[in-house]
Amino acid sequence: MAEDREWESTETAVAELHKKIKEAFEVFDHESNNTVDVREIGTIIRSLGCCPSEGELHDLIAEVEEEEPTGYIRLEKFLPVMTEVLLERRYRPIPEDVLLRAFEVLDPTKRGFLTKEELIKYMTEEELSPIQNISLGNIVLNID
After folding, report:
1. Measured between alpha carbons, how far is 68 from 19 in angstroms, rounded to an integer?
2. How many whole angstroms from its chain centre is CA 45?
3. pLDDT in tens, 45-93
């Protein structure tokens, strides 16, 4: 009995994920032929709450592309891969508290904002700046 309920719960969760993935995919399926332009895949994935790096995104695209790339991704290849990604909770966004701590490093006076000039300075200056050594959990920003 408990196994049956667990199976039904899992089956329901997968069905809900499939619906969510299909809806996101259909927004970019302009020809209504179950294909989207490969350049839209990152937007679709991010709309589903995932934040892969550019490298991870390229790996995902390689996984769902045809053997002879056409520039389009088919729903039938995208759906199982994206379902697995969502079930495994891969590519989760960085938690807000971690981002807030990183921001606080850049805002030592606690004004609650950075000016455009400060942001440009942090992103472009040659000498060691606070942004070059911010640790975001398992991610370390090391901007050279």
Report:
1. 28
2. 6
3. 999 999 999 999 999 999 999 888 899 999 999 999 999 999 999 998 8
Residue 93 pLDDT: 86
Of the CA atoms within 13 Å of residue 123, those in its CB half-sphere come to 7
Beta bridge partners of 36: 73
Point out which residues pair with 130 in neighbouring strands: none
Cα–Cα distance for residue pair 47/24, rounded to 1 Å:
7
Q: What one-letter code names the amino acid at 65?
A: E
CB count, 10 Å around CB of 56?
15
Angle at 114 between CA 111 and CA 119, to 5 degrees: 155
- Alpha carbons 17 and 90: distance in angstroms, whole number: 14
